[in-house]
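In keeping with the milestone schedule agreed at the kick-off meeting, the structural modelling team has produced records for the first pair of proteins. Each record is given below as a sequence line and a structure-token line. The laboratory manager (R.T.) confirmed that both were archived under the project's standard naming scheme.
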Amino acid sequence: MARFPCPYLKGEVELTTERHPDLLPRHYDLLVATLAEPDLVRRSPRLANTRLISPWFDQVRGGKHLVAVVVKDLSPESRHWLVTAYFARRLAGGEKEWQRD
């Protein structure tokens, strides 16, 4: 299991490599960059404890967002973990929580 720093969440995000075959290992560096320096953080419209973290990458398939879906475990450990991540041309749903100036 890997852990990535996410300053926005003030902690680390856990990732298991076997659950993300579309992104890893090829786009490992983009996932690290997504969590370290997002352009936009949205609240999931489905789960209150889930954030959709995304930057824009010009170099991916003619320009795409990489969306990292991160859940905050509400147990006493209060850990963050990556549920899934995917590329998208447009962002759908979710209330904007934070945006880079």
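The second protein of the pair:
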Amino acid sequence: MNIRIQSVVIGLFVAGLVSTIFFGVVNAQSTQEGDQQSARIRASCLSAKNTLDRLHASDALLRVNRGQIYESMSTKLMTRFNSRVDSNRLDAKALIGVTENYGTALATFRSDYQSYEEQLSLALRIDCTKEPMTFFDAVADARTKRTQVHVDVVKLHQYIDEYRSTFESFVSDYKATTQENAQ
């Protein structure tokens, strides 16, 4: 065999040996860290479950109260006013557009909250002393879904603000038009 080929073969063999040793050490460290994390989750299991139970109860109450307010904003304020404006043959396009966007955001909020609630319930059913990493992953997924619900709430509030400013603009235009017609 040529010396160059021998050098390459020996180099590949050494590289393979080093990578096997290195990844074996990394894998052992990962396993050790995973075992430590599992032990921490088991040790705080009861406390974590109690905290999640309280969060689940308070979020459910908050969801009902907020959901009713958001629904009322849509059905009792926005939709009724838009209908009234439209029945008086006034231009309600901007108000209706915001209301439609708000309705879409409200439906997204409901759907995302349902997904979050189901994930949190799933996490609470997991025995974290027997399946600590499954519990950890389920809680992490619930946290992500709860963050999405927060994003949805922020978006709803943006549409409420947008409707208010669109309403104020409508009132201003209406007053200006009424004054012009009166003269």
